[in-house]
Amino acid sequence: MRGNSSGFTLIELILVMVIIGILAGAVSLNLSGRTQDAMIARVQSDLKVYETAIDLYAMDHNDKFPKALGDLTGGKRDYVKEIKNDPWGNPYIFRVPGKNRKPYDLYSRGPDEQAETADDISVWKLEDANPRDREER
Question: Whole-model pTM above 0.85?
Answer without folding.
Answer: no
